[in-house]
Specification:
- About 10% of the residues have low confidence.
- The chain has 2 domains: 88 residues, Orthogonal Bundle (Rna Polymerase Sigma Factor, Chain: A), CATH 1.10.1740; 87 residues, Arc Repressor Mutant, subunit A.
- Helices cover 70% and strands 0% of the residues.
- The protein is mainly alpha-helical and 189 residues long.
């Protein structure tokens, strides 16, 4: 007997989820937990917050599974739901947050090989958690996920200028943090 290919197993799981089969939902949750959690951690300040976003995202997946196009990659559809859920969580926590437009912010020059560009992926994500939440989300969407400022502005209900400003400020905060770390290392020698 031949083993069932991965794509066929996923299709069977998704069809079970379409029928609201609890066992299929549980198996899908377990199979994609790590993938979804890695995304949630990029947009959250803590594991508890990430887990809350993860659970909300899976709930949306199970409720909207009928909108999934089986001819498209499931990971892409799932990732989009997770990122949107993280942004929704951010919005609900920050309803009264006031944004500054880029014109009101001093623009920092981009260095050709900044310390940020020299960092490893995991190290960068870890340090990005130190940013204020709106900068962290903007930074992740632009740098990690590859969204444009127009897309980010629509997702976060901010102007394109605010998206650019948030990214600029996030990069500057990261540069300053890295300079502090470097000067601390030099003093210890």
């Amino acid at each position: 007997m031949n083993p069932i290919p991965e794509s066929e197993r996923l299709r069977i799981l998704l069809e079970g989820c379409l029928k609201a089969d609890r066992k299929s939902q549980e198996l899908l949750y377990k199979q994609y937990f790590g993938f979804v959690m890695s995304i949630c951690l990029r947009y959250s300040k803590s594991k508890d917050e990430a887990l809350e976003v993860l659970n909300d995202a899976f709930l949306k997946v199970f409720l909207k599974i009928n909108t999934y196009d089986f001819t498209r990659p499931f990971n892409v559809w799932l990732k989009r739901i997770v990122v949107n859920t993280a942004i929704d969580a951010y919005r609900s926590q920050n309803k009264h947050y006031h944004h500054l437009d880029i014109e009101s912010v001093y623009s920092f020059p981009n260095e050709e090989t900044s310390p940020i560009q020299k960092m490893g992926y995991e190290e960068l994500l870890l340090i990005a958690k130190r940013l204020p939440k709106n900068y962290q989300i903007n930074f992740n969407l632009y740098v990690v996920e590859g969204y444009s400022h127009d897309e980010i502005a629509k997702m976060m209900n901010i102007s394109v200028g605010t998206s650019k400003s948030n990214l600029s400020r996030a990069r500057e905060m990261l540069r300053n943090f890295l300079k502090d770390v470097e000067s601390h290392k030099i003093k210890q020698k």
